[in-house]
Amino acid sequence: MGGTEKSDFHRISLETQALFVAFFVSDFIPWLGRIDTLTGQPARLVKNFIELDAFYDQVINEHMDPKRPRSEHEDFVDVMIKLQKDLNLTRDHINGVLMNILLAGTDTGSATVVWAMTELIRNPRVMTKAQDEVRSVVGSKNKVEGSDLAQLHYLKLVVKETFRLHSPGPLLVPRETIRHCTINGYDILPKTLVFVNAMAIGRDPEYWKDPDMFVPERFINSEVDYEGTHFELIPFGAGRRICPGMSFGTMTVELTMANLVYHFNWEFPSGVNKQNIDMSEAPGIAVHKKSDLLVATKTSSSDVQRQE
């Protein structure tokens, strides 16, 4: 895609993410749904659908163009087009897959990396400990590879603590009750929409000591993990509908973090410190840092050489 196409899709995807969490009166009081029409929310939603479909159609048409330069390897769009007749796939099916791949979870990983780097810069002790581990494991290879991650035990604790304190999806994907149940004396009827506040659970003082502090060491010798078996920490949900991208997303975050702390030394820019850095959150289905993270860096080649 060219620069204009990239910027257009970025604008469309940001609007899509905003609509995911936009307020619709009809979601809570169905008979007052006309208020949504007055505020323009349905028209905004339809416009976004049309723009997304137009973008997906453009991608598919480009892949079907016989004059398109062929790369050495097929991508997933090529595969779906090839299997379209055999599997009775329609354009809507391919559009749906494209939406899942391009929109679902694309910003949760980047948000997690930003929050993790923010916490590391605010906590130099943790930063130094993570850097020492990564540089001792990687040595002079010049980059961290996936095969190195199994040895980066402390870095994994840093990522786990980031998931706890800054859950990438603070409200998990909504659930719907299938039968009547009673919780704390409240009757929950079938087909009730249920939101699970994973961020509040991760900061609950009943389960976490000093819940607002960034302390990766809290997970040393702890059985608590984020794979859905311990409900104190459920950034990816739990049960049969746990996030299918959990392993890939976590590995991506760990690999990104490892390379960042391996290659550079990080510090606050002039005028910014731990006390005045903006830690406010932006609204969205994935919680990003409201203001950009500004940092000063310098390469750490000399530090890496000392590890040889």
From TrEMBL:
<dbReference type="GO" id="GO:0016020">
    <property type="term" value="C:membrane"/>
</dbReference>
<keyword id="KW-0479">Metal-binding</keyword>
<dbReference type="GO" id="GO:0004497">
    <property type="term" value="F:monooxygenase activity"/>
</dbReference>
<keyword id="KW-0408">Iron</keyword>
<dbReference type="InterPro" id="IPR001128">
    <property type="entry name" value="Cyt_P450"/>
</dbReference>
<comment type="similarity">
    <text>Belongs to the cytochrome P450 family.</text>
</comment>
<feature type="binding site" description="axial binding residue">
    <location>
        <position position="243"/>
    </location>
    <ligand>
        <name>heme</name>
    </ligand>
</feature>
<protein>
    <submittedName>
        <fullName>Cytochrome P450 71A1-like protein</fullName>
    </submittedName>
</protein>
<keyword id="KW-0812">Transmembrane</keyword>
<dbReference type="InterPro" id="IPR017972">
    <property type="entry name" value="Cyt_P450_CS"/>
</dbReference>
<dbReference type="GO" id="GO:0005506">
    <property type="term" value="F:iron ion binding"/>
</dbReference>
<keyword id="KW-0503">Monooxygenase</keyword>
<dbReference type="InterPro" id="IPR050193">
    <property type="entry name" value="Cytochrome_P450_71"/>
</dbReference>
<keyword id="KW-0349">Heme</keyword>
<dbReference type="InterPro" id="IPR002401">
    <property type="entry name" value="Cyt_P450_E_grp-I"/>
</dbReference>
<keyword id="KW-1133">Transmembrane helix</keyword>
<dbReference type="GO" id="GO:0016705">
    <property type="term" value="F:oxidoreductase activity, acting on paired donors, with incorporation or reduction of molecular oxygen"/>
</dbReference>
<dbReference type="InterPro" id="IPR036396">
    <property type="entry name" value="Cyt_P450_sf"/>
</dbReference>
<keyword id="KW-0560">Oxidoreductase</keyword>
<dbReference type="GO" id="GO:0020037">
    <property type="term" value="F:heme binding"/>
</dbReference>
<keyword id="KW-0472">Membrane</keyword>
<dbReference type="Pfam" id="PF00067">
    <property type="entry name" value="p450"/>
</dbReference>
